[in-house]
Design a protein that fits this description.
Structural class: alpha/beta
Order of helices and strands: EHEHEEEHEEEE
Strand content: 25-35%
Largest sheet: 4 strands, mixed
Number of helices: 3
Mean pLDDT: 89
Low-confidence stretches: none
Distance between the termini: 32 Å
Strand order of the largest sheet: 1-4-3-2
Radius of gyration: 16 Å
Shape: globular
Length: 142
């Protein structure tokens, strides 16, 4: 039986250096890189990082913008990152992420509480930026 529940498949982030971005998301955020070697070899247009078994973040180089012609004006989005992407983690994953970011000297906000999200108020939340300025929120629920 096919599950037709709507799910988030991917988010495309504009980045200057996709390989460096993949390294940041692997080393600092703990996400698994996908197709980085293929991108470096010129076989695919961009790499990705895996958020979970059904969601990825695509790391699109700005040079790809002219080929983003699925809708009129789509290429104009290059250089305009989304407001932020939020990652929901377990409490232990949340603490591990903060520790990895601190170990890599990535600036972070203080921890906030009770910020509303997809599953209601989050127990704890904080924000940080990737090397290209994309804002990432991390949170966990009870």
């Amino acid at each position: 039986m096919t599950d037709h529940t709507v799910r988030l498949d991917h988010v495309v982030l504009w980045v200057t250096d996709p390989v460096a971005a993949a390294r940041f998301y692997r080393e600092c955020v703990g996400l698994e890189p996908v197709r980085v070697d293929e991108f470096a070899a010129g076989k695919v247009s961009f790499p990705s990082v895996r958020v979970n078994e059904e969601t990825i973040l695509d790391l699109a180089p700005y040079g790809l913008a002219p080929r983003m012609d699925m809708l009129p004006g789509s290429s104009d989005s290059a250089g305009h990152p989304v407001n932020h992407v939020c990652l929901s983690l377990s409490p232990a994953g949340f603490d591990a992420l903060r520790a990895r970011l601190a170990a890599h000297d990535v600036p972070m906000t203080d921890v906030g509480h009770d910020s509303f999200g997809a599953r209601g108020p989050a127990t704890r939340t904080f924000y940080f930026r990737d090397p290209d300025g994309n804002v990432i929120e991390a949170r966990h629920y009870s």
